[in-house]
Structures are given as structure tokens and as C-alpha cells.
Amino acid sequence: xxxxxxxxxxxxxxxxxxxxxxxxxxxxxxxxxxxxxxxxxxxxxxxxxxxxxxxxxxxxxxxxxxxxxxxxxxxxxxxxxxxxxxxxxxxxxxxxxxxxxxxxxxxxxxxxxxxxxxxxxxxxxxxxxxxxxxxxxxxxxxxxxxxxxxxxxxxxxxxxxxxxxxxxxxxxxxxxxxxxxxxxxxxxxxxxxxxxxxxxxxxxxxxxxxxxxxxxxxxxxxxxxxxxxxxxxxxxxxxxxxxxxxxxxxxxxxxxxxxxxxxxxxxxxxxxxxxxxxxxxxxxxxxxxxxxxxxxxxxxxxxxxxxxxxxxxxxxxxxxxxxxxxxxxxxxxxxxxxxx
Length: 340
What we know:
Blueprint: H1 3-8, E1 11-17, H2 24-34, H3 42-49, H4 58-62, H5 65-71, H6 75-91, E2 94-101, H7 113-131, E3 134-142, H8 147-159, E4 165-171, H9 183-191, E5 197-200, H10 206-214, E6 219-222, H11 233-238, E7 242-245, H12 247-252, H13 264-269, E8 273-276, H14 288-299, H15 303-316, H16 321-339
Parallel strand pairs: 1-2, 2-3, 3-4, 5-6, 6-7, 7-8
């Protein structure tokens, strides 16, 4: 596959974190008016924002969010960050993207949760107007927080349902807070008919993936540990669950340490639907184009495979069927170019 063509082909992305995807130059624009000092040297700034390829573990990876979150505590900063992601998506012809964020991480300067959500949605909408990239957002509850606080985020996902919030997710410490910790909270999500995607299986526990599905998740963020529990493969097949794979991130966080361990082929051979994502564009130093080129290098995937993964993403997107059909048509016509 040729990089310039991969970049031009239409794509869909469902797993992209707001705070992990801001370009360093945009972070400067956000930090300056707030008087937040950043290293003047670009290489030094990049070192603070981009996780090293030889990351020791997930914790070292997550340290890269500290500086960014310090900067994302005003409405203007959040709006700028959301707009920045859409401008990046436009550069590689992403036709639809779902951007996720945890509102509770942006309250340090006293912003209310509704104001935080409104600011992010304003940035996404501004990006759509300027670049034509359709987008929606997902709200994340952080696993280590009080259940009451997480349920507040669920209710906000319901409140903003008509304004661009299309789903709910749980992110953060999966080891100490496995899915069934949140059974009542997720019952509420299902009761309010909010589409659910959950981070699961990022840390060596395939049962978490199965439990997430049993608790109502239609999509799984990462899902890598499922490879060690093939007894659950049929559960995902039967429930038509989509696994949001993020290759670069999975290696950086040491979810896997070798290509032989990576379950890309295992999932495909088992008939599990997967889609390809960046996770955190800046922290992982990647783009969706990079992710597809890696898969081509590792597994010799073709343009046809790439089209299939994007159709899977459309099927799993939290949007109405009429919008899905438009995206399917866009993909089908776009990939005819690659065949010629």
C-alpha cells in the first residue's frame, strides 16, 4: 500500500481521546494566554507530550497527559483542542470521528461539567463547519472516581444526547476497578438507552472484555487480553461486538510486547469485527494513516482489508442508520479509486 493513497482514502475513527491528541503547536496557543510555561524548545516539549517507544508500562504512558490536562481547564482551551482534532482528521480524509473525553478531568479552575461539554462540542462543530468532517463525542467516567460522580456523567450524556454526545465509556484503572464494579451505573446507561463502549482487556484480563459485553457494551476499547480467553470469542461474535484496536498504543503501554503476541490476526480469524484507531494521536505520535501503514508492514493488509475495517467502524458508530448508509456509500466509492 502507498502512504499517499492510504492518507487520501476515506476513513472512520471511533477511539480517539481529546486530551491525548492535541498538536504541540496548538498546546502552545492554549497555554500562552493562561500564562502556563512550556519549554521553548520544540524537542523538549515533544518529549513531555509524546510517549517514548520504549515506554516501561501504561503508567509511564499516562504521565504524558499531566501537562496537557493542566492546560485544558478553560472553555476556550477545550474548544481549541476539539477543533484541532477535527483539523487533523481532515488532513487524512477521515469522514467521521468520535472523540472521547472525561469531563471530570477539566474542573480544576471551577468549570461546571455542562460548560466543559458545551465547549468541546462547540470546537467539534466549528471543525465540522470549516473542514466538513462529521464528528460526535463520547463522555468517559473515570473508574477511580466515586460512583455518584460517574453517574452524574451518565446523566449528562443523556442530557446532551441531541447535541452531539452519542455514547458513554469508562476509562482509567481497569485492574482495580473491573467492569462489574459498575454494574448499577451501567444498568443506568442501558436504561437511558445510551450507547456503550468500554475500555476493557488493556491489562491482561480477557474476562473483563466478556464482562463488559455482558454489561451491555456494544464496542470494546482495545480488548487485547481477549486473545488469552478464546472461550469468549463466540460471545463477541454472537453480540456483534466491535473491538476498537489501537496498534501503536497497545505496544507502547506494554499491553503486548511482541508482534507474535498481537491478536490482530487471531481476532480476524475468529470472525471478530475490528476497526483501527489512533487512541492518542500526540501521546502515541501517530495518525490513522500510520496505523494502517503499520498493519500493511506487519500483516500485509490490502486496500480491500482497509475498506472492510472502515465499514466495520461505520457499523459500530453511534449514529442513525441513515448516516451510516451515507458513510458506507462514501467508503465504497472512495475505495474504487484504490482498485484502479
